[in-house]
Amino acid sequence: MRLLIMGPPGAGKGTQAVDLAARVGGAHISTGDIFRANVSQGTPLGVEAKKYMDAGQYVPDEVTNAMVRDRLAQDDAKAFVLDGYPRTADQVSELDNILEGLGAKLDGVLELMVADREELVQRMIKRAETSGRADDTEEVIRHRQDVYDQETAALVPIYRERGLLHEIDGIGSIDEVAQRIASVVDSLQG
Ligand code: B4P
């Protein structure tokens, strides 16, 4: 299966995507994780990405798109859960192009819905106690929410119109949300 997991920062994308990828036997591909690995290794990509990530901004599309194109061309990406991509209209178009080039198509898009912004902010403030992430300060967290509202929230209807969207209530314990996701994915697998 090829799935996208979407939702605002703190909705639980990365948290849920690991188990979800195992469930569908696919690669977990998180653009945030790939950027962070490059930052910690000090690669040129990491040096470039860090400038944007630390400020809560999106890394430029040309950088992100090239990275995802390379990753999806790898042998273990025949099935995947793509976590944190696409986040802009340009990335939606690029993902369409990449998949067309691979002769592949998406099976579903899971949107983790958490409308209460304070819940999202509090989750990430809690994560900040242990994450060591430079973008987990309250000011940057709030800015990331604004960027999501301005740039990414409007992408969800594109996938709804394509009949691919599955809305999942992201409020509740991590296990409760995982069970909701599992029942949607089981229905997709038929
Ligand atoms: P990401 O790594 O994707 O960061 P995120 O939006 O905070 O989501 P994450 O997956 O980490 O957190 P989650 O909601 O699971 O992106 C970081 C940065 O990378 C971006 O700001 C940007 O700069 C750059 N970037 C990434 N992709 C990009 C792209 N496509 N284009 C351009 N730039 C890009 O979890 C958050 C916390 O909530 C965790 O502590 C978790 O334990 C907790 N939690 C989860 N579910 C919970 C629940 N049900 N109840 C209580 N707590 C819960």
UniProtKB/TrEMBL annotation:
Q: Which GO terms describe its biological process?
A: AMP salvage
The compartments listed are: Cytoplasm
Provide GO CC annotations from the record: cytoplasm
Q: Name one Pfam family in it.
A: ADK
Q: Where, by residue number, does ATP bind?
A: 10-15, 127, 172
Q: Which residues form the signal peptide?
A: none
* Residues annotated as binding AMP: 31, 36, 57-59, 84-87, 91, 133, 144
**Which GO-annotated molecular functions does the record name?**
AMP kinase activity; ATP binding
Query: Positions of the region NMP?
Result: 30-59
Cross-referenced InterPro entries, in alphabetical order?
A: Adenylat/UMP-CMP_kin (IPR000850), Adenylat_kinase_CS (IPR033690), P-loop_NTPase (IPR027417)
Assembly notes: Monomer.
Q: What is the documented function of this protein?
A: Catalyzes the reversible transfer of the terminal phosphate group between ATP and AMP. Plays an important role in cellular energy homeostasis and in adenine nucleotide metabolism.
**Which named protein is this?**
Adenylate kinase
Annotated gene: adk
